């Protein structure tokens, strides 16, 4: 039978009854796009993708990040430029080597450009041409280019025995055409070449603009994709043929499983639980043929027990090892070893040995202490897999009920989608569970199914499926939020209560396994309180690592992270894991670079210097977000994730002033924003092997070291937009400097005409 999932069968038009003419398709698509454009336009220009927490940092404290802000900065610079400065000169200008050629080009181009642009004075005289200028004493202007200004500072610095290692400066290219600029190692560069450097810098600026445009484009694309997906969903509802094709998204689950010797043998249970190979040897009718064909494989692993947490990469593997008796059934049973004893003291009623949670029936989706399982049978295995008759209490369903009556535990295996496995799935052995309750329920289809609640036996190794935020003892997690009551997966944003919280829309589109359309203050995902299943689009960030991430060593920043796969913009990359702690617990901790403040509440409410962000649908829909007993003027976040002693790959991701990831707060299990999950999403399409970075986004002057002084860390992100330091940038100090007072710490972030230099200069000027 031809698969209904062929792309050609997925109509791009509204009506599913008749094949529309190509004209009709065109009109419909055009109309939709036109509407969407209107919608996008009415929102105003799309901002560059960046974390809301960053966008909320006031402009003057977040310099050079977007164009508008640069203007603010430039205006402030102008003030400095206009000030007349007296500089004492003690001798003829010398050729001085630059410490770093790039750095110097940056100085010259930017400072010069800024001053010229702002003052409009392009014919300013050079110091050498100023009246009264001589070798020993002359006047100069702060609004001269940096080449003219900094050498004087340099000289002062040397006279005062200051280290100038970062501020070694070149000669002054006053005679523009024939001047040479001395580089390190006695190399010289012509002034004309210098100008070409400036031109390069301008090109770099242009490339940044292109990047910006691509980001905006991507954002628009995702908006369009959302429209198309909605149209597709509409068609799906009407057309059962197409209904089978919907769940094409593949999610990767990454497991961090703690495997330790199985406790099963100690549990005093039937042989079949202690060693699956024994199950195999004793035999179970339906699987015998399959097993005998796998004898050779089985021999090799003959005495091996399957440990809790073991992963199989196909159903066949489980049958081959005798761990399961049948590759298709959801329930495995056994007659010979266990079960009800009849009057001849022989086992008559079988019991279940293993069950598989596949998510097909909205079963539980993780190896938690309590799981819900749906019985098997009476569904359309050749087609939609939908229920076509009532399930009945016989065969395997009865066996599992027997387990409850006889207090015999059952193995639980969890099936997840996993792109890298040849079967596209991975099967994790969660351990032994006892059946505690059984009931029957009518499904939306009108047919009833058997349900079982199972509890995990104590004393078995813990299994963590990349949900490894550990909680400090003094932190109490809020109760689970009641979720939506959509069946299977959420499709209608009007009826789904979780979509409502996101501004009456789903924040994700389905393409590439789920991509976030745009950053939001907070994303409300479906969680354990929802009745939708794992394939729901509104659970995108809950599927663990999907891309192959590598931790590698860099020259200047220590460890860093990159991906081996292309990551499309808007895709979830990783979640920040660590120990969830109270912030005040860490007050006395001096050196821990791996703490992530959960400051979503502050971002949303403009607390602690952050500006309240406008125009985010999620904010207005945040009524259920509670922050009980917390004063609004509180400037510190209450909780943080401490990855100092325990964390995942995210702890190795470095800061960049022009990052390719952004931070997104996500709420799924509860609605307490103070304890939101921190998920990093791709801001751009990220090529394989590119370093992954996000903006640490510290509010300026907010990080104080153990010595009580404001912490300063030079940034080596090396991007065009580098702000010099990733912890803080004290622009106010710079602008407020009393230059004529001549005794100051002058802190400069040096900008080039496109290349921002990854360092900051501390210049001490003494009268
Ligand atoms: C969360 S850790 C990141 C992983 C770190 N590179 C490592 O080797 O463990 C943060 C620390 O990395 C370094 N770092 C991160 N981004 C940096 C940047 N742009 N420039 C310089 N150092 C950076 C700083 O030492 C910072 O305190």
From TrEMBL:
Stored SUPFAM superfamilies: PUA domain-like, SET domain
Domain Pre-SET: 482-544
A UniProt-annotated Pfam family: SAD_SRA
Domain Post-SET: 711-727
GO biological-process terms attached to the record: methylation
Residues passing through the membrane, by range: 748-765
Matches recorded under PANTHER family: HISTONE-LYSINE N-METHYLTRANSFERASE SETMAR, HISTONE-LYSINE N-METHYLTRANSFERASE, H3 LYSINE-9 SPECIFIC SUVH4
Protein name, entry field: Uncharacterized protein
Organism, scientific name: Dovyalis caffra
């Amino acid at each position: 039978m031809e698969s209904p999932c062929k792309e050609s069968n997925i109509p791009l038009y509204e009506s599913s009854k008749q094949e529309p003419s190509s004209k009709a398709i065109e009109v419909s698509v055009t109309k939709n796009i036109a509407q969407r454009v209107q919608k996008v336009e009415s929102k105003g220009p799309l901002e560059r993708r960046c974390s809301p927490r960053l966008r909320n940092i006031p402009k003057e404290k977040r310099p050079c990040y977007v164009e508008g802000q640069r203007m603010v900065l430039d205006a402030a610079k102008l003030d400095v430029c206009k000030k007349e400065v007296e500089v004492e000169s003690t001798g003829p200008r010398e050729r001085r080597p630059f410490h770093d050629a790039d750095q110097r080009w940056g100085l010259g181009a930017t400072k010069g450009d800024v001053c010229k642009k702002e003052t409009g004075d392009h014919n300013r005289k050079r110091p050498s041409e100023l009246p009264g200028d001589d070798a020993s004493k002359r006047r100069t202007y702060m609004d001269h280019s940096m080449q003219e200004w900094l050498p004087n500072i340099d000289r002062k610095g040397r006279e005062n025995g200051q280290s100038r290692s970062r501020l070694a400066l070149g000669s002054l290219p006053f005679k523009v055409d024939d001047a040479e600029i001395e580089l390190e190692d006695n190399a010289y560069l012509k002034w004309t070449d210098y100008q070409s450097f400036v031109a390069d810098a301008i090109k770099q600026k242009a490339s940044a603009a292109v990047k910006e445009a691509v980001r905006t484009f991507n954002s628009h694309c995702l908006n369009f994709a959302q429209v198309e997906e909605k149209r597709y969903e509409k068609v799906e509802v009407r057309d059962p043929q197409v209904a089978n094709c919907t769940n094409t998204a593949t999610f990767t689950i990454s497991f961090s499983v703690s495997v330790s010797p199985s406790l099963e043998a100690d549990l005093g249970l039937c042989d079949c639980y202690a060693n699956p190979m024994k199950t195999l040897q004793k035999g179970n009718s339906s699987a015998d043929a399959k097993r005998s064909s796998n004898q050779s494989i089985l021999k090799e692993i003959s005495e091996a027990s399957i440990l809790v947490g073991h992963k199989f990469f196909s159903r066949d593997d489980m049958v081959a090892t005798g761990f399961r008796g049948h590759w298709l059934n959801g329930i495995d049973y056994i007659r010979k070893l266990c079960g009800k004893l009849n009057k001849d003291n022989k086992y008559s009623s079988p019991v279940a040995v293993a069950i598989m949670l596949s998510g097909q029936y909205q079963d539980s989706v993780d190896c938690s202490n309590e799981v819900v399982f749906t019985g098997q049978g009476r569904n359309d295995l050749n087609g939609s897999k939908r229920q076509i008759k009532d399930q009945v209490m016989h065969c395997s369903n009865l066996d599992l009920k027997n387990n409850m009556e006889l207090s015999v535990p059952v193995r639980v295996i969890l099936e997840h989608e996993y792109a890298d496995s040849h079967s596209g799935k991975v099967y994790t052995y969660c351990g032994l569970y006892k059946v505690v309750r059984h009931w029957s329920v009518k499904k939306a289809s009108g047919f009833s199914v058997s349900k079982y609640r199972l509890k995990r036996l104590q004393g078995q190794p813990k299994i963590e499926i990349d949900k490894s935020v550990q909680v400090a003892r003094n932190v109490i997690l809020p109760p689970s939020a009641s979720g939506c009551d959509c069946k299977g997966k959420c499709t209608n944003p009007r009826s789904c209560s979780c979509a409502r919280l996101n501004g009456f829309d789903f924040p994700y589109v389905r393409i590439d396994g789920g991509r976030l359309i745009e950053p939001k203050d907070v994303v409300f995902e479906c969680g354990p309180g929802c009745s939708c299943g794992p394939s729901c689009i509104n659970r995108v960030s809950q599927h663990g690592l999907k891309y192959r991430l590598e931790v590698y060593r860099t020259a200047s920043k220590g460890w860093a992270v990159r991906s081996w796969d292309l990551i499309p913009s808007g895709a979830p990359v990783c979640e920040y894991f660590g120990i969830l702690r109270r912030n005040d617990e860490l007050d006395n901790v001096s050196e821990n670079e791996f703490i992530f403040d959960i400051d979503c509440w502050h971002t949303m409410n403009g607390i602690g210097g952050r500006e309240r962000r406008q125009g985010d649908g999620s904010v207005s829909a945040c009524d259920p977000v509670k922050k009980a007993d917390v004063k609004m003027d509180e400037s510190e976040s209450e909780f943080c994730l401490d990855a100092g002693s325990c964390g995942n790959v995210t702890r190795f991701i470095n800061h960049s002033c022009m990052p390719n990831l952004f931070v997104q707060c996500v709420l799924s299990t509860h609605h307490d924003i103070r304890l939101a999950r921190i998920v990093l999403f791709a801001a751009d399409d990220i090529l394989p092997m590119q370093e992954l970075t996000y903006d640490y986004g510290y509010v300026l002057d907010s990080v104080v070291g153990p010595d009580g002084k404001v912490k300063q860390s030079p940034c080596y992100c090396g991007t065009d937009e580098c702000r010099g330091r990733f912890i803080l940038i004290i622009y106010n100090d710079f602008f407020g400097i009393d230059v004529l007072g001549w005794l100051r710490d002058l802190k400069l972030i040096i900008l080039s005409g496109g290349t921002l230099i990854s360092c900051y200069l501390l210049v001490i000027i003494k009268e």
